[in-house]
Write the structure tokens for this entry.
Amino acid sequence: MTKLSLIDLGKSFGATPAVQNVTLALQPGEFVSLLGPSGCGKTTTLRMIAGFIKPTAGRIEMNGALLSSPSQVVPPEKRGMSMIFQSYAIWPNMTVGQNVAFGLKLRKLGAAETNERLDRMLDVVRLKHLKDRYPAELSGGQQQRVALARAIVIEPEVLLLDEPLSNLDANLREEMRSEIRRLHDAFRITTVYVTHDQAEAMVTSDRIVVMNHGRIEQVDDPVSMYTRPKTRFVAGFIGRTNFLDGRLDGGSIAFPGFTVRADLAPDAGSLTRDASFAVRPQNIVIHRAAPAGGNSGWWVQGRIAERAYLGEYWEYVVRPADADLRLRVIAAPGEVYAADESVWLEIDPRSIARIPSPEGTAL
Amino acid sequence: MSQAQLTDAPTIATTRRRTFEPLLLLWIALAVALLFLVVNPLFRLVQLSLQDADTGAFTLANYAAAYGRERYLVAMWNSLALGFWVTVLCLIFAVPLAWAVARTDMPAKGAVRLLVLGAFVTPPYLGSIAWILLAGPNSGWLNRVWMALTGADHGLFNIYSFAGLVFNIAIYSFPYIFIFTSAALDVVSSEMEDAANILGAGTLRTTFRITLPMVMPAILAGAIVTFLEAIALFGTPALIAIPARFNVVTTQLLQFFGQPIRAEVAAAYAVPLLLITVALFGVQRLIIRRRGFIALTGKGGDRRTIELGLWRWVMLGYALFVLSLSVVLPYFVLAQAALSKAWGRGLSLSNLTLHNFTYLLFEHETARQSVINSFTYAAAAACIAMTLALSIAYIVSRRLLPAAGVLSFVAMAPFVVPGIVLAIAFYAAYAPPPLALYGTATILILAFATRFLPIGYANAHAAIRSINPEMEDAVRILGGGRLLAIRRVLVPLMQRSLIGAWLLVFIPATRELSTAMFLYGPNTRTMSVMLMDMSEEGNFETLAALGFMLLASTLVIVGLATSLLGRDFMLRRERG
């Protein structure tokens, strides 16, 4: 049973498409993030799910019933969802208790049940002692928890979160993203979470949807998204990465400044003439000396072009001989190399991802 | 929430239709209201000016009549000269004051700001009455002091002159430039000045080369508003220019309304005033947009006050001099006259009486009614204007309907219509049958509401824009409708700014003269009209008492509003 379906969903503002061909199905209790740079259409998609924006193409269904299509839209108040806004949107004219109980009162649950659920919820988010305070008297983290409590207490069909942590400072953000995941594990509410922060998405989500220019680039669980990016955009957006754009030439692949054995490449059988790969900086190992007959990997000779010490690790930029290519490499704090030192890099082909070649680029 | 509700497709379709229609109906209602209040009167004004009074046939004869006589053209020239000199004098008054208050360590800044606010809320015609008592030839207080000191046989000042008119208007118009300039100075970062200082420029050079040029667009914008206020003002010229035997546009317009009423000639004569105003506000917008406040926006960092040393006392002296001309002296003589049996006998216990007030309130035929009229009309007008303004602002800021921008344009349009022109336009549209509203309370209230609709709209729009739409979205996603969101969240959050906006309409409406002067009837005199009537009788004691009541009630309302809404609520200027 699918909880929430977006089917070929699209939205244009005038002639400008904001969201195109978005198709996605959420299972009951699933936590899915929409991740992408600003302007990628993720918030527009979320607001279409909420019913604030009417789609110009496709449809949205919940529990098999139509919610939105270009011709009809169920208004937000009839969807049984709830949402946490970027600004929190805590009503400053109501106390914490009144804010959280608002949705319960609208559902006419009766005083006893309303109070019981309110108290239980405030307990869960550790705000019971602040029940009669006004929002202006709360810290940012506490306001955030009021927003969470207000949205979750009604046990919505679907919970929507619109960059809820972007106004918090770094420490609080880490705490709150774990809190969000904890509440999700406790209540198992189907959740759509919009963010531009990949760490937030990876910590909280069962699946991540990476969006760019209004389209879905890839839908995957966090591990696959990181280790097996399917597009150049995803490889570059999630974590840091080196792009290797080469050309297949017989049994080897020629990259700028070095050549490697083609048969070691992932999915070597399907290689075409232009071959591109993404490799993470921590998956490249630096060596002082040439390999002693090691044929199990790809080896690159180069020089240290830049280096920076960041305490937890060294970051080197290595340039293969006579090429413009710059390979970013991360090494343990003890592995010290001097600027301009000649080094050998070892790339494990099992840890690299095949990605489409850049369009119209010739080597 | 039940799933059954969501799977019920017919329910969905009907809800959709139900939420759509009220909004469309509201749009139509607002459009009709604006057509009635703004579009139709202005259309009728132009139409009237192009029609023969008897036959209704198209003619240019009204324009020929309006510009065919030399004295009509002289009046027009007088208005332009008046506007120019008032603006010059206001710049001399306002710019140093604004700079001193915004950027220097001049003492008693709070008191200076308060007195500027006092000048701003004083009806100019009351100031004129006070200055007639102060600088009337020979009998005015200042002249009597002068004659007593020097032994001269005639006074030094004559308020009944062109110079007197310029002066009298300027002391109540300079707050416009003050507000524009100090608002701009408030956002000029000290770092801009520091950058000049570090390169070797001293305080004086920095002020003239960096600070003032940066706020020049604001000063110009304020100067344009001042010019337009001066040429559109009716009360002061009526009190001073007419006895001095010269006319400006506004007094000439009133004469076209004498018996027999030549409204079509007045309409033709008023059209250029309207065009000048529209054009200059266009220029003002260009100035603000082009030079912009772009360099001035942003946080701007801390603002350091400039230390003037001993000069700060000179600045304070100048400020108090200007403000005593517009506030201290006039208030004093008005109070003195209002409490005197005969104002010329000066301050003595035997001269003291409250009879002027009891006479007005209990003996005079129409004075008490005029007080009641002023406040009820103003309250009704403020309610109408705010209802319209809020509805339009809500539709516009939440983008509920596609063509909402048209509504906001029309709602702001009266801003460029001088009060006197609006009055003639209302006369043209609603004095004749079938409505025949001339002289009724209805036409006065509607004209006041229209005149101050832009103030209400600008404030309502700012208030609504300051509230994040997510506040309402949060109500809706939790299951509340739009009306619930407005009732439970929007209205409580905007309460204070709405009261402020209501007062900003109410206060000027209580003392509006130029619109009322052309539309009132025997039973619908307002205090302002009453004052003009009484000034012709020359009974200055009762006149001062009536003026004093108007002033005192205004000050009480402004005082209440200030304590409720913050010190600067009337001197603030919306930027952007």
The interface with chain A takes residues 1-3, 5-7, 9, 12-13, 15-16, 19, 468, 470-471, 473-481, 488-489, 492-493 of chain B (CB under 8 Å). Chain B has two domains: 15-44+362-537, 60-301+311-344.
